[in-house]
Amino acid sequence: MVLGLDVGSSYTKGILFDGHVRNKIVLKTSFKPKLAVERAVNELRGYDRIVATGFGRDLVANADKTITEITAFAKGASHIEPSVRTIVDIGGQDSKIIKVKEERVDRFVMNDRCAAGTGNFIEKIAQALDLSLAEFGQLAVNADRAEIIDSLCVVMAETEILSLVAEGKRLEDIVAGVCEALVRRIDGIGSQIGIESPILFCGGGALNPGLIRAMKRIFGAVTIPEHPQFIGAIGAALSL
Amino acid sequence: MLKNIDPQKISLKEWSRQFRLLDDSEIRRFKYYNNDEWGIYLSPPATFMVYGARELRKLKLDNSLAALRLWGFALNESERLFRARQSGKHIIATMGDLGTVPVIAMAFPDCIPFYPDCTWWTPFFNESTVLLDKASELGTPEASCFVRSTLAAFHKMAYFPKPDILFASTGASCDDYSCIMQMVEDMGFELNWLEIPFRRKKQDHFTDEKYARTPQGLDYPERFETYLINEYKHVWQRMQDLTNDGDPEKLGESIKKNNRLRRLVDQIKALTHGAKIAPFPALEMMVIEFGNLYGYADIDEWIDILEMVKSKIIDRVKSGNGVLDSDAIPLAWITPTADPLLLNIVEDLGGRVVATEYVINQALSEIEEDIDPFRALARSFMNASLIGSTEERIRHISAGVDSGRIAGVIITNMLGCSHCAMETRAIEKRLKNVPILAIDIPAPLGITEQIRTRIAAFIEMLK
After folding, report:
1. Would the pTM of this model clear 0.95, i.e. be above it?
2. Cβ B440–A107 below 8 Å, yes or no?
């Protein structure tokens, strides 16, 4: 039994894996990644070995192996959907687009400058609109149309959204617009390597129905795996 | 003694401990300008932290005496220049020229050429943004290239003595350098401008133009030779006016000396890049390559240091020892990194640099010795990386990639750097046969976990 740990910047995900996910846990990493790792290691018992991935992978002192989340996502996604060509991971602090060939990373890009194109963008806008993430996602699904949000900078987008609110636009349409703005950013980043189908959408972002809707509107068919948040942890466990 | 130690990269702390093992006689061997009265320059690298290069503490440096001498010398340039000035030498700033003007300056025995542009590395060594902050105050915004540090260095006049002459290039030279130099001129410094022509490729519609070819195989309009010869003769005249000296034979000697340096660096690169196990680290190799520009203001000592480095590398290659694992992934590196730590990181994560294109091609190739020296300099300059089209640069890079030894390419992209912005994407698109990772070099202290992850993932992908 392998403990796969994906120590992300927003959430730490752990799974017990023996070819199947036997147990799993998600903990907020916050600014205490060591604490989150400690809790995951203590709560998921019965493993023989540990493989860590994610930005905090090197904090897992007793890991038998560490790999980057890029490699972990490629392994995890290929295990779940062997035909996958592109993985889109919208994480809390960064997003990755990974091209996969024969279950290996072929090319990849990450957003590298700011919160634009990450889950953090959604969180900040949800906060500004006084919505929980669940409410935000649900509202977006009920949109008639997505308002156009041009700004990718979270600060500028807030101003733009305020203007739309002041214009009396439907909140559902505004949040759908926010989701599409983020996915357009992903599309822009991904164009550097070329996004090809089949696309697997994973990471915490794939739990948000608004983002799923936006992904499907922009990319067409998109597969959402059963445990989208755990793809990195599964890939880590598979790397032994 | 450091004779029987295994090659490896060590921290500054370890270097300080190891330095104590050195005999005093060994330390006393290496002096500024090989002059007994000028004092020694060999010291533990940690000494430079005391002088302000605090970022050194993050680096791991090669543990050989040759590397110690290399670092002691390269990091002491500021001190060396001030000492040279004190002893009555003329200090010649050669900005944005990249290859030929220092060769002319070295033909005048009392003149020391240096590159103020190299100040762009200072904020990355110093754990201080004082130069970049001052540059912002002086009117270069955050979004411009790190070479803006040079502007601040001229304003502060603490990093090098006031030059007796400043030569600067414009035209097909780097736009960022050129802008900074214009601002330096606005600050009251007298600049002597050289206009660099663009190496225009053959045009089908302009058939009367006669073309010549450099020994490295680059075509250029023949009339550029005459043009550049005139520019270099102005440089010569200006130097003569300053020194009341000027023996044309010495220019030939300077060319020969610079060729010796260039050959030596070529040999060191071939030995290091071709060895089964990397015998010398990429960071030290970058310092070596950039020494071709002006010999770090003392070409004789620099050549001597490189002879020592070469012999160390030969020893290591013969014994099959090196500083990296034998399965390190061979990479090409395009455009020099402003942050030296990145070279360490790539090696720590399992990469190995086996080819470079640091945009200083004109300083790497030999200058012809059997033709008029000014013409030889002009033809040599026609090899420059930055004066031609991106297509030509890509062709040059492709040749290295197509040799088949390179598993991946890293391009370091400088935020605000005009040619990086233009070229990086084009290079990425055109180099189809090899995986590429382009990294935007962040401001000092800005190497994030995300950048490490991208490099680590890239190397994992290549394994």
Report:
1. no
2. no
